[in-house]
Amino acid sequence: MQRKVTRQIRIGAVPVGGSAPISVQSMTNTKTHDVAATVAQIRRLVEAGCDIVRLAVPDMPAAEALFDIKQELPAVPLVADIHFDYRLALASLERGIDALRINPGNIGGNDKVALVVKAAQSRHIPIRIGVNAGSLPADIVAKRGGHPTPEAMVESALRHVRILEEHDFQDIKISLKAHDVPMTIAAYRLMSEAVDYPLHLGITEAGTVTSGVIKSVVGIGAMLAEGIGDTLRISLTGDPVEEVRVGNEILKALGLREYGPVLISCPTCGRCNIDLAGIAAEVEQKLAVIKKPLKIAVMGCVVNGPGEAREADFGIAGGAGQGLVFRKGEIIKRVAEQDLVAELFKEIDKLVVEEEQ
């Protein structure tokens, strides 16, 4: 797929836009002023494959905590999420934040914007403009029948963009989010045609893990398949680590990122004579700690199993109480069903050791 070419910004050491790989973001749900809890959660996010982490900065104690958080995690790109108060933006910049999420039209007059822009420019810190369908300016919504539309979302975002551009600031990233998937896709399509700033993809208020993942995969996957998007966040109600895992899986499914193993497992049917669901779940859990890009097949019968397993780096194919273990297309051994997972991971461990030598 051909990606839309955008200008590039940097959030810490991570490039966003241009030819840079699409990055995965998440947001902590700890109280930012609780440094220990926030640092612990950020470490979990990074371990899961998160490239950029956003933190809520609703008050000055949260802003002041950013310095200590950065001291603990100097290599992790951190974004301060701020609404309305320019003083929190200034405080966050002074404490070493790597990017701001703030809408310049909502932080006071032109003099307040000038202060934030000057402080960001002097530190080479980008600003993300984030528009949500549920909080668009009343005058823009009124022009379009009193309801949010893709056009209203784009107009609102461009209003903020123009404010920054008037201050000669172009280190900008844009997001346009709604819980409505078709509206979100339409808004990003329009924005992609209107500007060359990098775009941050997301479906906001997507829901719990089940419904939220479906909406995010459909919406974000569709935009990425069209070449739209430079970075993304999956918005789920719950543990943010799940957001990172889903984001990486979307990129892996589209061939846009290699990060950790890809698991192939067949659907169960009447031909299956082993506990395929249990085996696949166990393999998936064990693969979660492996960072090396591998293709792993877990197949349940002799119809498609051996062929699919042969296409994988490693695979297992089951039969009646027993199964085969494959490595790069070659049958290694026949083992009892209860030993399949253990024997599979013995072979994976061997490869890791071989490549480290």
TrEMBL record:
It comes from the Bacteria. Keywords: 4Fe-4S, Iron, Iron-sulfur, Isoprene biosynthesis, Metal-binding, Oxidoreductase. One of its GO terms (molecular function) is 4-hydroxy-3-methylbut-2-en-1-yl diphosphate synthase activity (ferredoxin). Pfam families: GcpE, GcpE_C. It catalyses: (2E)-4-hydroxy-3-methylbut-2-enyl diphosphate + oxidized [flavodoxin] + H2O + 2 H(+) = 2-C-methyl-D-erythritol 2,4-cyclic diphosphate + reduced [flavodoxin]. Binds 1 [4Fe-4S] cluster. Converts 2C-methyl-D-erythritol 2,4-cyclodiphosphate (ME-2,4cPP) into 1-hydroxy-2-methyl-2-(E)-butenyl 4-diphosphate. This is 4-hydroxy-3-methylbut-2-en-1-yl diphosphate synthase (flavodoxin). It comes from Propionispora vibrioides.
